[in-house]
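--- STAGE predict ---
source: upstream dedup step, 1 unique chain passed
mode: sequence only
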Amino acid sequence: MIYLKLFAEFFKVSCFTFGGAYGAIPLIRDMVLRNGWIDEARLSDMIAISESTPGPIMVNLATYIGHHQGGFWGSLLATAAVVLPAYPVIILVTVILKNLIGNRYVQAVLRGLKPCVVGIVLAMGVYMAVRGCLDAAGGPDPGSLGITAALLAVMLGYRAAAKKELSPILLICISGLLGILVYGV
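--- STAGE serialize ---
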């Protein structure tokens, strides 16, 4: 039954995610491709949409994939499965870490997890950047390469001129406008 499968798979992803939503993307990718729920191109599109719409990426992805596979009930169950583990985990972490945060072993574990999380997020970012610059046949997409280069130039130019970071919201808006210019409506 698809509803049970959606719930179980997203619950598992939520339970074993470190590093937030960006750390979950490789797990979600593996899950949807393994189950044949959506293809890689659609997943990349959904990640982009989830990033630029309100709400947590993981919840947006679960809702979309759940709806794609099981309609309203599929989206509801997949979303619940992603959100559900957070409550007891946060309560447990708050209670335990409140008393143990100064413990050198707890600090050692946390310091050991940081490079893992950074590596997972970095690897997924590089993968998505490369994948996003390829066309459907796997060759370079000049439009995507141009938009990526333009966004990078705008971001670095703004940082150099204003001595601060450019808002991600503004980058999303600029990339949407560039997408319209490059690919048409």
